[in-house]
Amino acid sequence: VAQQLQLVEIRTLDNERKAVTLPDSSQVWLNENSRLAFDANFVQRQVNLQGEAFFDVERIVDRPFEITTGDATVTVLGTSFNVRAYEGEEEVEVTVKTGKVALTAKKAKQSIAPLAPGQTGVYNKKEEKVELATIEQENADAWKTQKLAFDDEKLLYVIAALERYFGVVIKVENPALLECNYTTTTAFEQANLEDILMVIGTTVGFEFSKTDGRYVLSGKGCQ
User: Fold this and answer.
1) Most confident listed range (2-16, 78-92, 106-120)
2) Under a CB-based contact definition with an 8 Å cutoff, are residues 120 and 95 in contact?
3) pLDDT by residue (tens digit) across 56-94?
4) C-alpha dist (Å) from residue 89 to 1, 84, 85, 124
5) In terms of pTM, does the model score above 0.70?
């Protein structure tokens, strides 16, 4: 007799994060507004994710671990990585911290394997294809670690990371500012956005103002 599936579902709300231990001892940290579902007996190491999660997967050689999220599949043996797959966003992102990960577009049967530590694979939902991201997502798991660090990053990418982390819009008056590079001397840990902007602004040479919940940076910029 086929065993009946017993679905376990874990959800998080706004500003809520949860740590989950799966039946195989793998660890999952769920970001806000996310949903993780899996069969309670976990004979097949398969989970379904909507939203964002950081996985630290136990290595079991003959039992790969699989995450499905819409039309993209992430397959691993034992490794740690971040998956961002919110329904309203155009892309699914997988950023590897340790080990190796395969990212597959199910319909196109197209795959990137392996993604190595530091690499990000992106599944474009509209084009139904996977590709390697050209920008390293050094802060992909900042929501979990509460730390932000930049290593000789263009301000364009620094701003993108801050917007994502704080859920805000940051504009620049002078596009030349985006060409400036910035490196953190020590990681920003649980800092607020305005303190971070003040520190970066002092180094790079910009001032910021806030209007209607948006931040605007103004300065000479870099060529």
Assistant:
1) 78-92
2) yes
3) 999 998 999 999 998 999 999 889 999 999 998 899 999
4) 41, 9, 7, 10
5) yes
Bridge partner list, 142: none
**In angstroms, rounded to a whole number, what is the distance separating the alpha carbons of residues 195 and 84?**
27
**Structure token pair of residue 32:** 């806000």
Give long-range contacts, CB 8 A cutoff, 24+ apart: 22-30.
Answer: 22/47, 24/58, 24/60, 24/63, 24/65, 25/58, 26/55, 26/56, 26/57, 26/58, 26/65, 27/55, 27/56, 28/53, 28/54, 28/55, 28/56, 29/53, 29/54, 29/144
Average pLDDT in the chain: 91
CB 30 within 8 A of CB 36: yes
